[in-house]
Amino acid sequence: MDYSLHYYDLVLLAIISSIGVGVGIGSITPLSMTLTVALFGVMAIAFIGHALFINGPVDEVEDLSRSVDPEEVSEVLVVPQINE
Q1: Is residue 82 situated within a structural domain?
Q2: What radius of gyration, in Å, describes the C-alpha atoms of the chain?
Q3: pLDDT tens-place string over residues 39-64
Q4: Do residues 22 and 36 lie in contact, with contact meaning Cβ atoms separated by under 8 Å?
Q5: Alpha helices in the chain, H assignment, sequence order
Q6: Looking at residue 49, what is its pLDDT?
Q7: Which residues contact 55 (CB under 8 A, 6 or more apart)?
Q8: Residues 10-23: pLDDT tens digits?
Q9: Could you give the number of structural domains in the chain?
Q10: Under a CB-based contact definition with an 8 Å cutoff, are residues 51 and 12 in contact?
Q11: Confidence (pTM)
């Protein structure tokens, strides 16, 4: 089974990386940890904002009003089985 990175996987990686860079810079430079984590936290918030509002998970506004039948929920939440 091949796995490819999608946009939201990269967003999660960018959020974790930006906070990690803030911690790293705070620990190896004379800048305070609080300052660097806060500054790079703002960058993480920018990634989250882009993922939610610029490149959101829906294509059209009409997708937000689509109701899901209870029968469809089990189909969406099924975890794929890996055959060994």
Answers
A1: no
A2: 19
A3: 999 999 999 999 888 887 776 666 66
A4: yes
A5: 7-28, 33-49, 70-76
A6: 92
A7: 7
A8: 999 999 999 999 99
A9: 1
A10: no
A11: 0.65
